[in-house]
Structure prediction request, 196 residues.
Amino acid sequence: MIVNLEEWEWRHAMHVAAARTTANWKKDDAPQYRGNKSRMEDNRTSNERSCVCELAVAKATNRYWSGSEWPSDRHDDHKDKEADVGTNIEVRCIRTRKAFKIKEASDVGKGKILFGTETLLTSDGKDELKTVKIYGWIAIDKAWEELVNNNPPDYINKAEEHGFRTREVPIEMLHPLSLDANGNYIDKRTDLTEED
Prediction:
């Protein structure tokens, strides 16, 4: 499913992205990026991409997007209380990989649904972050059951501890969204479950 943001939606997403960036102004890079900045997108653009994708999923599924932000030292206060979209949707976006990251400690056992997304380039090849492709969704706990015995992603450069493992959900594993004849998402007005 392709979602095109309106100008006011894009502006709102950029506002939230700026708030997230400034709230985490002095945050250190994740361990897998330290000493290897070439693998990492700058924080500002990464926040913009995330916000655009979250808003696109909210728009497509007709669910609430809080656009919340907080400093990294308050993340533990919110991570189990706030979903990216609605009450149980976690949005992941890809840029260069063909799979979506899930973490055992923060994602598994919470009853959340992963929506996999990607921002699309404009017709002239620019990365304007205005159009989002939603690949589909999967219950994170179900994905973890199927992936737990796989190797960690290649960017994990240390031994993993039980309870703190990372896996990637390939695009092919996602369930496509149910659409009507006009290409609109069929909103069942319940939270997504594996049976949907």
Notes: The radius of gyration is 16 Å. Residues 2-173 form one domain. The chain has one domain: 2-173. The chain has a mean pLDDT of 85.
